Amino acid sequence: MWVEWKFSGKMPVPRSAHGAAVYDDKMWIYAGYDGNARLNDMWTLNLTGENHQWEEVEQKGDCPPTCCNFPVAVARDCMYVFSGQSGMQITNSLFEFNFKTLTWRRIGNESVLRGVSSQPPSRRYGHTMVHHDRFLYVFGGSADSTLPNDLHYYDLDTQVWSIIQPEPNSDIPSGRVFHASAVISDAMYIFGGTVDNSVRRGDTYRFQFSSYPKCTLRDDYGKFFNEKQFCDIQFILGPEEVKIMAHIAFVAARSKYLRTKILAARDARQQQMEKVFGTGCIEVRPCSSSSNQGPLLEVRLPNANPEAFEIILNYIYTDRIDLKESYNKNIIILITDIYQLAGLFLMPRLAHGCIQYLDYKINKQNVLEALYNADKKKIQIVKDHCMQFLVKEENFTDVVMSNEFSDLDKPLLVEIIRKKLSPGKLVVADSNLDKNVGTTLESDMAVFLESTGKEFCDINLVLDGQVIMAHKSILSARTQYFQAMFRSFMPPDNTVNISIGDILPSVEAFQSLLRYIYYGETKLPPQDALYLFQAPHFYGLSNNRLHSFCKYSLEHNITYENVLQTLEASDYTKIFDIKEHALKLIVKDFARVARLPKIACLSRELLLEIIRAVADSHACFAFSIGLAAKSGQQQPQICMTP
């Protein structure tokens, strides 16, 4: 039964297209449109007890601009607002309102510090945003006259945006605006909305959230860097020769420039050793990860700022720029130094992130310092960004009247005045044009595993007589098993025999495991998933993420094309429920399975089990079979009639 609540006293103005949320037994409404203007006020209404009165909230912090047609989501004692119709002030920043402190916080492009690969959705309105687990999910809306249908999610822990890549067989909804979304249990539902040409829809879609444990790749690598275990290289930086230790494999994987420097230093050390001990007398292992196998390889970078270089090293391991509080005083200069080194080290994604951050952080108080530093170091793109900010009407007077302005060098003063008098059109690279510039941690580590890392391998993994070369530091960073092994003793001849408990995995399955270790790859064929089911526990991975993907692969990816491999692997690993499932699939699609070349390679016992399964599933049958005793004899033939 509907009941209208009557109020006395101060009330919010009538409005539409506003946001509403429930927290602490109160309804909170925010912003909207009153028929004449967009709003950004906030009100609460007590939903319990007898005293139902509106109360205006005194908001603090960095408030969003006036807006309407935006979504809100509540998570962790906060309300989140993303984009919306704000006229010229429209932004793709995420705003967080803390219910307990009544304070807003803008989460903008500063996310580049936590993950340069972060891809926030474009600015939009009429979209939806929901909360599930540790994520906020944004779908649809009108984005600069387009109707995107990609699904973005924001990780509240890492504060990084990403795009979900749907399963190939998904029924993906078309882009739409002014639709509705709701979360029920572990799924999101969307209904209706307006699509192209103002056509209204009445369709419903369900999106199944994943419940996989988080990827710990960056956390594992970052922890390994900070602990400084098994370091095999030492960088000597600046005129004061500050020393910072790291791991060759990680540095070589992320920077072509530093990879070349490492190879040159390795060759120089080898030549020096041969000069002292004679040719062929000493073999210098270039990438030893053990602290007891010779001195660290040394690489000198005399022009590098040690603070900036250490931050770049952290980025190399984590794809994040970690700016500690001690750096805040000279943050603009430090970011400029990082940008300059990123260009030298051929790391365009990092350089792009620095420009994004400067865009976000440059203000009236620090623009002159940033401009002076960029001019001194001849970094034109940073200088142009500073000039563009400085000559704006709302900034120029305050900056010119500051004490710091009169301290600038005369040529720079003249350049500023001329730019103000004749601004023309500044050519400044748009830091938002290409969010995919450069390479990510995952893509670099994938290439390193498959190709560029071959000459840096320092451990041989032997599996069924086949040697697979790898890198001790990467294995140690991701697995407790290898970390404990290399800490306790060094395997003879740098060779380790591979198993997963009592199981000897296939070479293909172990290569899938290496892809997961190196760059978090989770695409596993079911036959590999069977072998790797126990790998997280045996090798001591950080969590059960790999186990979860193994289970998913086994439940969803067994087809007639790989069912025989799955049968063989499940028989070997003694996972009998999967084996029974595989037999049922073989019987169901026997006409196609029987023609696969793989069937001729199965053991006699498995062939007999297939025959029994076929026999059990049919009322009458006829078959003949010949079992080959030696290679080259007639292969088994199975005939079936219904």
UniProtKB/TrEMBL annotation:
Database matches in SUPFAM superfamilies: Kelch motif, POZ domain
Record has NAD as a keyword: no
A GO CC term assigned to this protein in UniProt: Golgi apparatus
Domain BTB: 231-325, 457-526
This protein's UniProt keywords: Kelch repeat, Repeat
Keyword Repeat appears in the UniProt entry: yes
Signal peptide (residue range): none
PANTHER family in the record: LEUCINE-ZIPPER-LIKE TRANSCRIPTIONAL REGULATOR 1 (PTHR46376)
Protein name from the UniProt record: BTB/POZ domain protein
UniProt organism field: Musca domestica (House fly)
Classification lineage: Eukaryota, Metazoa, Ecdysozoa, Arthropoda, Hexapoda
